[in-house]
Design goal:
With 338 residues, this protein is α+β, with helices and mostly antiparallel strands. The protein folds into two domains: 249 residues, Jelly Rolls, CATH 2.60.120; 75 residues, no CATH class. Helices cover 26% and strands 23% of the residues. It has ten helices and 14 strands. The strands form two sheets. Strands 1-2-12-9-14-7-6-3-5 form a nine-stranded mixed β-sheet. A five-stranded mixed β-sheet has the order 4-8-13-10-11, with no helix packed on it. Helix 2 runs antiparallel to helix 3 and helix 3 runs antiparallel to helix 4. The chain is globular. It starts with 8 loop residues before the first strand and ends with a helix.
Length: 338
C-alpha cells in the first residue's frame, strides 16, 4: 500500500438536507462522514451482506447488467492483459442476481475471482433507488449509478463531471491526485481502457518506481480518502482517483453532474480535434495556438472584449446560449466532413 501522508478533509454533520452548502464552491475533495447513514441500502448492508444483497435484489428491474469476471491471480485489479491488446477479465450481459449469488458464495474465499459490475444507471436498472435513498442533489439532475463488486482495484482515472460518491455497503479507499499530476501518472492509451476512460498504468499495490520514476512526485501530491458504509466523497471535476473495494461485497453509488449544459458538449471532443489539427504542427505554431487558446479559452476571464460591440460578439458571447452552441456544432460537423 502506498504511504500517503495527506488525508482528505473530513466534515461531520453533513446530510442530503444541507450538502449543497458545502459543495457549491468546493474545489478540493471532501469526505462527508455518515452522509447516507439513514439510507435503506446502508442500513441493510450494515445488518449483513446478505441483507444488503437482498435490498439490491428488491429494487432491481431484472434487466441484464454488464459485469466482468477476472481470474483470482489478478488480485482484484481491473486492467489490461499482459501485451495490452485487451483486458485481464471477461465480460458480458448477465442477470444481477447471478453476480450477487457468486459474490456471496465467495465471501469467505481468501483469493476470490474478481467480480465487478461497473457504472449502472439507477433510473433504468434500480428505479426505486433515488426516491428511497435521496442525495439532496435534485437541482443538478445528476446521473446516478451503482457499482458492485468485491475486493476490486480500479486504476486511477479522471471524470469530467463532479461526483458525490457514496460508499453504501462495505469500505472503499480512494487515492486522489489533482489534475496537474497527469504527467506523473503514466497514462495509457486514449479511449482504449477498462471502462473507456484513460487510466494510469501504475500498479498502486506494487508501484515500479524504476519503470515509472515520476510517480514518486505524484505521491507527494496525493491524498487518501477512506470511506466506511454511509460515508460520501465529493470529488471535483477532473481529479484523478484510484478506487479500491475492501470487502467481499462493496457497493458504491455515484452522482455525476456538470457545471454547463449538455448542449455545450464534452471537452474531450475539443481535445480530439486539437490532436487532429494542432499536435503535429511545428513547435512555433503550437506555441502560437497556445497563446490563442489562452486568450479565448483558458484565460478568457482576463480578456477584454469591450472593443467589440455586443451585437457583434457572435460565438464570443458569454454565456453561450443553446442556439449559438448548436450553430458551432453544425459548423464543425460540416468542416470535419471536408
Amino acid at each position: 500500500m502506498l504511504a500517503i501522508e495527506q488525508k482528505t478533509k473530513v466534515i461531520n454533520g453533513v446530510s442530503p438536507d444541507n450538502v449543497l452548502e458545502y459543495i457549491s464552491d468546493a474545489s478540493e475533495p471532501i469526505i462527508f462522514k455518515d452522509f447516507a447513514q439513514h439510507w435503506p441500502i446502508v442500513k441493510a448492508g450494515k445488518a449483513s451482506i446478505d441483507q444488503g444483497a437482498n435490498y439490491i435484489r428488491e429494487i432491481y428491474s431484472n434487466e441484464p447488467v454488464s459485469a466482468c469476471l477476472g481470474d483470482p491471480k489478478t488480485k482484484g485489479r481491473v486492467f489490461y492483459n499482459d501485451d495490452m491488446t485487451g483486458f485481464n477479465y471477461g465480460g458480458g450481459q448477465v442477470d444481477l442476481n447471478i453476480v450477487l449469488d457468486k459474490l456471496l458464495a465467495h465471501s469467505d474465499d481468501p483469493e476470490p475471482p474478481t467480480m465487478y459490475m461497473g457504472s449502472t444507471e439507477v433510473s433504468r436498472w434500480f428505479p426505486r433507488f433515488t426516491n428511497e435513498n435521496p442525495s439532496g442533489l435534485a437541482q443538478f439532475n445528476p446521473l446516478t449509478s451503482i457499482w458492485i463488486g468485491n475486493q476490486s482495484k480500479i486504476a486511477a482515472h479522471y471524470d469530467f463531471p463532479h461526483n458525490l460518491a457514496c460508499s453504501v455497503i462495505g469500505e472503499r479507499r480512494f487515492t486522489l491526485f489533482p489534475p496537474e499530476q497527469i504527467d506523473n501518472l503514466y497514462v495509457g492509451p486514449m479511449e482504449f481502457a477498462p471502462g473507456g476512460q484513460d487510466i494510469s498504468l501504475v500498479d498502486f499495490a506494487a508501484p515500479d518506481f524504476d519503470k515509472f520514476p515520476k510517480f514518486k512526485d505524484a505521491v507527494k501530491h496525493a491524498q487518501v480518502a477512506e470511506l466506511g458504509a454511509g460515508d460520501a466523497l465529493f470529488l471535483p471535476s477532473m481529479w484523478w482517483h484510484h478506487v479500491e473495494g475492501k470487502n467481499a461485497l462493496n457497493v458504491l453509488v455515484t452522482h455525476w453532474w456538470r457545471d454547463t449544459p449538455g448542449y455545450m458538449g464534452r471537452p474531450n471532443n475539443a481535445l480530439m480535434a486539437a490532436i487532429l489539427s494542432i499536435r503535429s504542427l511545428p513547435k512555433a505554431q503550437r506555441q502560437a495556438w497556445q497563446a490563442i487558446f489562452n486568450h479565448y479559452i483558458f484565460e478568457h476571464d482576463n480578456t477584454d472584449l469591450n472593443h467589440i460591440p455586443r451585437h457583434a460578439l457572435d460565438v464570443l458571447q458569454l454565456p453561450l446560449d443553446e442556439a449559438s452552441a448548436r450553430k458551432i456544432r453544425a459548423d464543425l460537423l460540416n468542416k470535419l466532413k471536408r
